[in-house]
Amino acid sequence: NAGVTQTPKFQVLKTGQSMTLQCAQDMNHEYMSWYRQDPGMGLRLIHYSVGAGITDQGEVPNGYNVSRSTTEDFPLRLLSAAPSQTSVYFCASSEQARTTEAFFGQGTRLTVV
Amino acid sequence: GEDVEQSLFLSVREGDSSVINCTYTDSSSTYLYWYKQEPGAGLQLLTYIFSNMDMKQDQRLTVLLNKKDKHLSLRIADTQTGDSAIYFCAENLGSGGGADGLTFGKGTHLIIQP
Q: Is residue B15 less than 8 Å (CB to CB) from chain A?
């Protein structure tokens, strides 16, 4: 059981480039989300989804797009990367309602130069 | 708005107890959580407590919840070198602790001295 899989693990981008961070889960979880982790800032919610076809913004959505065409996948797109988006990104998933645990991927370390 | 506060560092001697404290602001939180992050890894749920409980014990871990003061603590008995990690307190925003909306503290880096 793979759990939550994120790719790539590391990425360096130039300012203005675009890319997609991939997240897949094999637990048939309805809820998925993206967080970014910055030093001294903890984890902050970027976007989340409560089911296929449904997404919503979190605390820091600007500069990021998401889509949820299947239950399994929840990609995060950076349309025009900026140095302020240098961070570690975590994807998480959980069962639909009143669950007690979110499962996290291993993270993607992104550097924008 | 919701806010979760933690100290950034805690240093303890191996074998002693560690107590990591957290304060939160959203009194409607149903569950409160402690997550552990080891270097280079994702977050792993350590334990959680339902808001109508005062205490929960799970082997070396004891969680205490003071709803009146909105204070949560995690006690690790007989701290070992393998406990060295960053510990995050989190509360739920939505209907549960699901991935639709956890609010995390900044994390407490637990340092173990030999």
A: no
